[in-house]
Amino acid sequence: MDREFWVQCDSKSDMQARLDSSECGVFDELITDEANTWGYLRLKEEGICIPIGFADVGLLPEVLLHNRMVYVGITDTVAGYEVATGNLVFKYRVPTVFHEFVASEREGIIVQDETGFIGLSGDGDQIWMNMCSDTIETYRISGSVIVGRTADGDNFKFPIA
């Protein structure tokens, strides 16, 4: 996403100092379990900064803007913020490791974690979940289903319900 910019910081205090001198609207802080990495997402066009502390598993935070909400995914967490207020509306813990936002539906979002897919409402309630026995290797959305293959070679087909 062009509007997204990850700013890595040396520590939580370094992050706070940088945010104090920034010109963006600072949202509520997002901290995952066992946080050892600090930084913030800066969405330049929106003038938004989201401070984040997370357990580094090799993936950087991802962001999705949808229906007056900002969704952030990192490590084992998906969080939703109101754009107008910067308030954290929900934190949802994914079963394994968050990988990406797959799609935004009219009323919610679809999230891919390491071994499956989760449909969340706009306020963070789980609507549906389909999981595999191994890591997702490839997938695509075909109409109202998600089809793909796992790392161990098993094919899957899940309805988007």
Structure description:
With 161 residues, the chain is mainly β. The chain has a domain at 6-93. It is built from one helix and 16 strands. It has one helix at residues 12-20, and strands spanning 6-9, 25-26, 30-31, 37-43, 48-54, 62-66, 69-74, 77-82, 88-93, 98-104, 108-113, 116-121, 126-131, 136-142, 145-150, 155-159. The strands form four sheets. Strands 1, 2, 3, 4 and 5 form a five-stranded mixed sheet that branches. A four-stranded antiparallel sheet has the order 6-7-8-9, with no helix packed on it. It starts with 5 loop residues before the first strand and ends with a strand. The mean pLDDT is 92.
Could you say which overall geometry the principal axes of the C-alpha atoms support?
globular
Distance between the termini: 27 Å
Overall average pLDDT = 92
In total, the number of strands is 16
Task: Give the count of helical stretches.
Answer: 1
**Main β-sheet, in a few words?**
5 strands, mixed
- Compute the CA-based radius of gyration: 16 Å
Low-confidence spans? none
| Proportion of residues in β-strands | over 45%
SSE order, one letter for each helix or strand:
EHEEEEEEEEEEEEEEE
